[in-house]
Each structure stands twice: as structure tokens, then as C-alpha cells.
């Protein structure tokens, strides 16, 4: 696709809210979206007002019995049709996301296709939400029914706007629950389109609502008395606030938060494969990935050779306009670029060694180059905090036990990677790593059917796979005395 063909015109003029089966404009404050590749104003939106938020929640509540009353196989058909529509029209959403997020076009398309995959995966689960019978002995029998949790809130980040939306909305709808989604204020354009297509696919009006706005609207949504569950993806700091808001309706929470994920490379590893995966794992999507492998922990004897290879891969990445599908797009916003730059400048001022990158390029837009700091002390800010940009820190270790101590030495615990030819050693490490997912000899080469979520400050609960249904389909126990 050429840049001209991919112009995101379909986004312009769209309604930015979707309430009770109809698109509408926000009645709250105006916002101007900035094109991150040019730093120019691109598109205007308006936030939802608190009244519109209340209408969205009441619509979602009223629609619950309609959807829960449908046969599970009928619900599955709707979700399947939605998956097909997303795939057929993927180019339209990919072009919007490439311009809005600054994501290279092929990566934006992959995000859209993942959204379709989630709807198809959870469509298959609709008619398999079986309860159980529990023998009690004597004259009593217990059985469980999996019931929809109720109205669910989905509060989303900007880095993968569609796939993070779909990974929560698809299991919620499959379980018979209803949805009010709030995309990030930076990337509000695609969610409404998805809700419109869901209606077209046969989803009853009111089941899937979208409201726009920032943290205040997010907090009001999480704290609305009729919300039964809040699925939040974003920073650890905002996640803590969401938990406090959700305490008001005593809602359940799934929190998918930040990370500072380690990749351990032992001396016996396939270094060429490790170099490619480590470079991909931190520079892909300009490092704006919660699961970014931001810390390379490498056995001393192979450290320099491996890091030189990763640096060469980073330096070969071409920056460019997202719609022309470069290797590296811009960061999403001026704030994000300033944040990344702040971490880098403070690390340099602290005397840390930057072997590549570390300098804002002389061009328009919020671009930042692949950057590597070596021999970073474990306590350094840049080794402990999530940068959320293309910045890798490396640390040397003298063996697996030291690697493990370094890897577990932050507040986060989202994912981790291990490279070693010794499967027993890799399994031993995998079992001791504090992370929700551990990749052995293939960092981030998993999939969306695998349970995903963090430990420690990286979150609570699990999404993806069948585990992702647990938040939305709650067992009710019925005990019969006979
Ligand atoms: P953010 O926390 O600033 O915002 C996320 C969402 O929360 C936005 O929609 C925002 O409007 C809303 N929000 C902000 N304050 C709120 C409040 N007090 N109450 C309710 N809602 C509020 O995060 P971001 O900058 O959009 O995204 C980047 C962060 O997201 C990174 O930390 C990244 O690691 C994390 N993330 C995690 C995952 C995961 O699956 N674990 C995936 C993607 C991103």
C-alpha cells in the first residue's frame, strides 16, 4: 500500500462516542490530536461529559438481559461475524492507527488483525462456559452456573489501542457481559469504529459503548456504582488510582500495568538468535510495549559481542513516516519523547555509558533512536523505571544465580526471557523468575491464547487465553437438598 492510498480519511468526521447503539459527539472539553510524525495538529475530538458517561453505563446495564438471554451459539456467531468484518476492513483501521499512534503501517495492521483474532478465539468459548457439579454426599448436590459479571469498564492505553481493547471486550461479550470502553485520550479514533462494526455484526444496541476522555472520565467510569468489573491497561501509577476508584462500586479489577522486563542470555546461547530477538523486543514499536525486554542480563564472556550485534541492528533501523512502513516510527507524543529523553539525559549525567543513540534526531516529529546503555548498576534509575521507549540497559553476570538476582531485582514482574542451550538450566531459571510469562529461546514468541498478566507492580489478574474469561464469567453455586 502506498502512503497516498493509506491516508486515514475515514477517521475524519467520525463520531467519537458510541452510546446505546449510536455514534455521537462528545459534550465535554475539546482536544486536538497531534500527528506524531510531523508534530502538526491532525484531528479534533471532544471528550464525553459526565452525563454521557452515565448514559453509556445505563445503556450497558439495560442491554444485559437481552444478550445474556441469547443462546451461547448465537452470541458466538455475532463475535465471529465481527472478527470477519475487522479482517475485511483491516486496512481502514490500520491507516488510522498508523497516523494516530505513529506505528509503522504493517505493525498497525498486525494490531488490527490481533483484534480480529481475539473475537474469533472468544467466539469459540461462548458455548463452552460449562459449570460443574460438586458431590456433597448424603442428600445434597451442588452445581455451578457461570454467569455474566454485569457491566464492565475497559480503560485503555495508546500503544496498542485495538488489540488491548479487543483482548478485554471479546471475553466480556463472550461471557454475556456488557461493555463501556474508554480508549486513551491520545488514540480515541478506532474504538468507535469497532463498536459500530459490532452493531453491524449483530450485537444488540447498548452492549458495547465507547466514551472518550482522559483520567477524570476514566476515574468516573471506574467509580460508577453500576460497574461490576474494571479492566485497566496502563501505567502502574494510574492502576493504583483505578483500584481506589473501583473500591466505590466494590468492582473487580484486572490491572495490566507496566514492566521492566529482563532478558537473560547465558554463554551457551545461540547469540545470533538472541541478538535479533533482544533488538526486536526493545526497539519494536519504538519500545512502547509493556512487555519490552528493557534489561539485557548477559554472561560476561559473551556480553560485548552480543551487545555490538544488538547495537548494529538498532543502528540499521530506518526511521520514517508510519504510513510508509519504516522500521521505526515516532514516539506517540511530545510528552512521551520528553519522558524518554529525560531518562537518557539523567543517565548520561550520572556517568553511565551510552554506546549508541541517546540523541534526538534533527527532524520534525517525536522520533527517538534505538539507544543502549552498558554496564548499568542495578540501582540506577534507568535500570529500575519503565522508560517506555527504545532504550536498552545491559548488565553483566557471572552465572545463572547472579542473573536471576538481577532479573528479579525490580518492582515489576510482567514477562522475562532466557537464552540458553541447557534446557534444564532454562527451566530452573524460568521457575524462579518473578514474571507472568517466561519465554525460553524466543522472546515474545508466544501468542494470544496464552494467559498473560503481571506479578508484583505489573498487575493483577490474567487476560488472554481461557484464563481471560474468569473475570467476566462468575460461578454461581446452587446447593440442592433432596
Ligand atoms: P496511563 O496510565 O497514563 O493511561 C492509561 C489509561 O488510563 C488512559 O486511558 C488514561 O486516560 C486512563 N487514566 C489515567 N489516569 C486515570 C485514573 N486516575 N483513573 C482512571 N483512568 C485513568 O498509561 P499510558 O501512558 O496510556 O500507557 C502506557 C502504560 O501502559 C505503560 O506503563 C505500559 O507499560 C502500560 N501498558 C501495559 C500493558 C499490559 O498489558 N500490561 C499493555 C500496554 C500498556
Number of E-type strands: 20
In CATH, the architecture of the largest domain is: 3-Layer(aba) Sandwich
- What number of domains? 2
CATH secondary-structure class of the largest domain: Alpha Beta
Biggest sheet statistics:
7 strands, mixed
Please state how the strands of the largest beta sheet are arranged side by side.
Answer: 14-15-16-13-12-17-18
CATH topology of the largest domain: Aldehyde Dehydrogenase, Chain A, domain 1
Enumerate the distinct ligands. Answer: nicotinamide-adenine-dinucleotide
User: Number of DSSP helices?
Assistant: 14
Share in helix: 25-40%
Residue stretches low in confidence (pLDDT < 50, at least 5 long) are 1-12
> pLDDT average, as an integer?
95
Strand content: 15-25%
Taking Cα atoms only, what radius of gyration do you get, to the nearest Å? 23 Å
From the N-terminal CA to the C-terminal CA, the straight-line distance is 67 Å
Overall 3D shape:
globular
Helix/strand class:
alpha/beta
**CATH fourth-tier homologous superfamily of the largest domain:** Aldehyde Dehydrogenase, Chain A, domain 1
Secondary-structure blueprint of this entry?
Blueprint: E1 17-19, E2 22-24, E3 30-35, E4 40-46, H1 50-68, H2 72-88, H3 90-101, H4 105-123, E5 133-135, E6 140-148, E7 151-155, H5 161-174, E8 178-182, H6 189-200, E9 208-210, H7 215-222, E10 227-233, H8 236-246, E11 252-256, E12 262-265, H9 271-283, E13 295-299, H10 300-315, H11 334-349, E14 353-356, E15 371-374, H12 381-384, E16 391-397, H13 400-407, E17 415-419, H14 423-432, E18 437-440, E19 459-460, E20 473-481
Parallel strand pairs: 7-8, 7-10, 8-9, 10-11, 12-13, 12-17, 13-16, 15-16, 17-18
Antiparallel strand pairs: 1-2, 3-4, 5-6, 6-20, 11-19, 14-15
Helix pairs in contact: 2-4, 2-6, 3-4, 4-5, 7-8, 9-10
Nicotinamide-adenine-dinucleotide binds at residues 155-160, 164, 182, 184-185, 214-215, 218-219, 222, 233-235, 238, 241-242, 245, 256-259, 290, 386, 388, 414, 459.
